[in-house]
């Protein structure tokens, strides 16, 4: 019953997406206003079908309906309820189904928010998004169908992948990442509509920027939570290994970040129109490429799914996307003419352009290093390995350059600049940066790139705080307002600018944390008997013995460890090994003692109850927690930037004209430069 109902809903969703895509694109190109209501009906139909299909699958998982193929693949009677729910995205077929409801939600949200604006433009944008929906519902109905019937029906299943039920971060990490990936469909649809119409005015740059920011936020949080999961679960003593699937999420993050900076130049100077849309299209193509890399099984990774039959289908879709994007940019790009030029090399628009080029260079470097092993194997029949040294050597200088530009850009004015004013703005932040480097040297820290990163972080932080405080200072002096009133008034008036600088502070935290935890990590390993200690840094790790236990879905063996910190504080830690019924090898869970200064990280490698010994890997990671603590700043800054400053206003002459009349002027959305 569940198989039939779920599959029927998927087929209905495919029909709604196909009809809506056809009507939206054809009606939009013909400037037929009557097409839009039909597109809206299809959007609702697609959303409800995807919602229903996901609901059916969740019901099957919770009721242990092993007649459904996906439940037989990942379900288990012993799996705790919370992991039964999240097992929807624990394997290939379920994750694609989950993507369907996320896509349906995004498309419906976009349609409802902008339903009263240009009907023809909306028809093109929604038609494009539903065309993407056609591809994913085709996958669900065909090569990735989770609703196959199983006969004979098994009495129980293996449960989800042990790694995916070994830590609660897996409850939120995949949805965040999927929301970032799928969210890029909305700006892709807007960009395609802009190219088909041959115009990109302020009316559609505002929603394009806002929806990209939403997807960017989810993608950022998903990447950070993924690194946290790798750090907290895998026990290898790290959080980022340039794994192909990690890179797959990083690539669209780079291009979408470049896009958001490029929109500043487009808005202020009416420049880089075609380049800005190219970044949007490229970001979406990279999300589809990343999906292919994750789900085709062509890479060996703890993050990727097993071998599947969807790889060729994805390759065809990527080829179609590339053709469509290149065709649109080459045939319609000439209509997006820049309205001004760069006047000075020492200006904010110049630094943003350089910023964009650095982001694209890093993207190309990471993409090349990720795909080169596959290309080498296909062409030469030799599988080579591209590891961390390549990525660090190529990406680290680019990252340092991005950090430098984060400080220089806000410091420079738009257009031509006064050298004297630039020097006045430069010397205090530069002095702070140099002082930080000097303090690090006196503290005994060495290393060119780490110290350069710390110095630039101080440089950028001073400039960012000054740019945040300047509007408040002006309002306090000119209007006599109190600090809180001036702060809130400034945030409302320049919401995007204010939010962007808060995000910059979060990014600076990540730079500092990565530099410190990578360059100044301390590591040791050893085997100790009960009562003996392992020393690392100023810590003493004393092994006290073993403890074992039983949980509904696993058994475990944990070590009792007493840790004496350099300041004399005593605490207990319990790194452990978890044993799952259908896995031959245990899954380790490290123990972490977290402080603002550093983490003590213990991983259990082996133990012998007879001999009373245990083998540990131990690390000290300075400032590593700052990576995860940057999330509140990223969320706060992005929410401030995307929150509308005032309700949308449509001018009288922007109403939709009658059929056959000239193209309507742009809608004035969020006047005052709101995001």
Compact summary:
The chain has 675 residues and is an alpha+beta fold. The protein has helices at 2-29, 35-62, 69-74, 81-86, 92-113, 119-141, 169-183, 185-197, 202-233, 244-269, 273-295, 311-332, 348-380, 388-411, 419-442, 448-479, 483-493, 495-519, 626-629, 631-642; strands spanning 522-529, 533-536, 539-551, 554-564, 570-573, 576-579, 587-589, 591-594, 598-608, 613-622. The protein is 61% helix and 11% strand.
Distance between the termini: 47 Å
Which secondary-structure class do the elements indicate? alpha+beta
In what range is the share of β-strand residues? Answer: 5-15%
Note poorly predicted spans. 301-307, 648-675
Sheet having the most strands: 6 strands, antiparallel
Helix amount: 55-70%
Count of individual beta strands: 10
The number of helical elements comes to 20
Shape: flat
- Using the CA coordinates, give the radius of gyration: 27 Å
Give the H and E element order.
HHHHHHHHHHHHHHHHHHEEEEEEEEEEHH
What does this structure look like?
- The chain has 675 residues and is α+β, with helices and mostly antiparallel strands.
- 61% of the residues lie in helices and 11% in strands.
- The protein has 20 helices and ten strands.
- Strands 2, 3, 4, 5, 6 and 7 form a six-stranded antiparallel beta sheet that branches. Strands 1-10-9-8 form a four-stranded antiparallel beta sheet, covered by helices on one side.
- Helix 10 packs antiparallel against helix 13 (348-380) and helix 16 packs antiparallel against helix 18.
- The longest helix is centred in the middle third of the chain and has 33 residues, at 348-380.
- The relative contact order is 0.08.
- Mean pLDDT is 85; it is low at 301-307 and 648-675.
